[in-house]
Amino acid sequence: MNKKYKWSVSVNAPKNFPATLHYGSLGDTGIRGKGTLNSGWGQMGSLTGFTERPLPQKLDLVWLSYLENQFYEGHFELDHKKIAQIFEKGFKIRRKREVLMSHELNFIVNVAPGGTVAIWLTGVNGFQREVGFYQAKKTDVVWKEYNPHGEQDREKSVKLYVDRIPAEIVAQYKAGTLSFKKWETYRQPFTWDIHIKGNPHIVFLNAYAFNGEEYRIEDKFLNIKENTIYSALPRKIKMQWEEPDQVKECFTATCIFKDSDYQAMATAFKENNNTGSFELVPYVENNIKKLKLYLITGANKQEIDLEENTVKRAFYKS
After folding, report:
1. Which of these, 5, 149, 193, 261, has the minimum number of CB atoms within 10 Å of its CB?
2. Is the pLDDT of residue 199 over 90?
3. What does residue 254 show for φ and ψ, rounded to 5 degrees?
């Protein structure tokens, strides 16, 4: 229980759903988060400390969700056993051409509208695991205590942040059609794999899931190769591969799924015993390398229209 590890903590919020932390602590460590939080679900914010100490057992938070003009408060017991197991196991890193196991991790805390709270442990290069998901309660804070040196009119102050939120999100919220359950929905696990047609030489292939987790599916230098993943569905894929030896070219690619396609993909998986495959197909159009992405569930194969689909030549192999 008292074994020490090196760790830090940061806080953030989903993109387009700004928040500000009024108070936060992870164990005995205060969390820095007085600025605007809205970089993205599962994303790191400003780090607080990175020192060796016992692992935390409790998370305490009070924050303001600007879209709702609502404060939330949460006091949560952490899954200490699960956290300790991840620290003890560690994850692979490459340092000076040597593969090592690192046991230094960062806690990422995210807050979302409706009082949703999630916490992850993250390492480097695509290693991130959820270790807690909680529900906070509505509360209130004396505005002068929350914002002692700023605008004392709460409505004016909150409006400055709400005006930066996309109009369609604000309209959906006001109409009561905006669901705050999506972050919980995104956590549903499925069994899936990713493969590239033609089986080129993979340098690395990382998947970033809708629920904020990150997976290193294949890594040439770290000797990692996962045949299947049991996790939330991927939202982004980053990869690098080498063309056949006679071409001597290396390419990198980033594929980002559309949030609006999540439900259709999840339904396809559910209709196939919660399993499926993603197939990446490189092709050339007007001398430009591109990718197509297909979802295969049983006998069904459908192309996924991506939000971002970029392929770049990384270098020529020597």
Report:
1. 149
2. no
3. -130, 125
